[in-house]
Amino acid sequence: MVSDSVVHAVAGAGGGMLAMAVTYPLVNISTRAQVETKKPEHANESALKTVQRIIKSEGILALFDGLESSLIGIGITNFAFYQAFEESRAIILRAKARTQTSKSAHTLSTLESILASLIAGCVTAVVSNPIWTINTQQMVQASLSDPDVAEASVTTKIDPKTGEKIIVRKLGFLQTIRKMYAKDGLAAFFRGLGPALVLCINPIIAYTSFEQLKNLIIARRGLRAARLPGRATDKPSVLPLTDLDNFLLGAFCKLLATGSLYPYLVVKSRLQAGAASGKRYRNSFHGLAVIFREEGLGALYSGIASKLAQSMLTAAFLFASKERLYLAAKAALRATAAKA
Question: CB 190: neighbour CB atoms within 10 A?
């Protein structure tokens, strides 16, 4: 029989891929804003104007550059995270069950949620970093006249300002891998791992706050239900969260996580973009200092509006769809086992 943690991991991967597909243009816009060297003509540019500029100069499909690697990345990321989180959670709960008999032995405390999320986040960062580095490279390669991209697909666009033809070269997923490896070796795939590990705090904030708020809501609803006429019982009734509950909780918790750590996302994206970003940083702290000194505080929050919108929507769709996918997978497994 497939373990419960694997079912959670598969549901998380499927939910993440669905959420990413829906919100991907916002990912693209935010990443470009993060890695693009500050240009006067793009200063204070709204997300809508950025979309219009990209469509005019590169076509509407440019908003989906790197979607293939992004879907692979989110699938691997979420599978690894939920697998590691559920395994860590199960180990902690088994340890508590041996020493406690109270109801709290069946739920994680805040510190226990932080520990499980930290373990899962670190595992996920190492496993998924190569995919996100490839994805970032694909997003920012557009419109670069690069002699190293001989294998790239070549398209022609019209510059909306001058009317001149622009040659746009873009590499596919496997071509990007070959180019990165030929240029910098295996190390190329782990650029940005430092800030990625720091950003393990992101899922800690998101998933710990989600777990604790979920437990609080369930407990309060259970107490209310216990007071209803005809429901005389010593034990509170535990009511499941609705899809809307999961959607709103996911959005709120991701807002807290992404908003508080956004400057590290900027540095991570620039490190992963490498030469394409026009900047070289020794590490994440050096990157933060250089960006602040040369470009100002605003540069550390480039693209934050579209990123927050994307992160909140992605998390909302993920938490809502994951529970549905989990229940569907469990039902399918039970039906299969009954037929066997």
Answer: 16
For the full predicted model, state whether its pTM sits above 0.90. Answer: no
Please give the pLDDT value at position 228: 46
Helices (H), 274-303: 284-295
Asked whether the beta carbons of 241 and 218 are under 8 A apart, the reply is: yes
Tokens 């294998």: give the residue. Answer: 151
Task: Check residue 235 and report its DSSP letter.
Answer: S
Helix runs in the chain, H state only: 4-35, 47-58, 67-99, 110-140, 173-184, 193-198, 201-226, 243-273, 284-295, 304-339
Which pLDDT belongs to residue 79? 92
pLDDT for the residue 162: 60
Please name which of 211, 234, 213 lies closest in space to residue 223, comparing C-alpha atoms. 234
What the chain holds in terms of domains, given with CATH numbers, is: 4-215+247-339 (1.50.40.10)
Q: Is the pLDDT of residue 235 over 60?
A: no
Q: In this model, does residue 101 exceed pLDDT 70? A: no
Token pair in block for residue 35:
């890695």
As a whole number of angstroms, the distance between CA 265 and CA 247 comes to: 23
CA angle 278–189–79, rounded 5-degree value: 125
The answer to whether residues 6 and 78 touch, using CB atoms and an 8 Å cutoff, is no
* Nearest residue to 281 (alpha-carbon basis) of 262, 267, 302, 298: 267
CA atoms within 13 A on the CB side of 311: 23
User: Quick check: 174 and 64 in contact, CB under 8 A?
Assistant: no
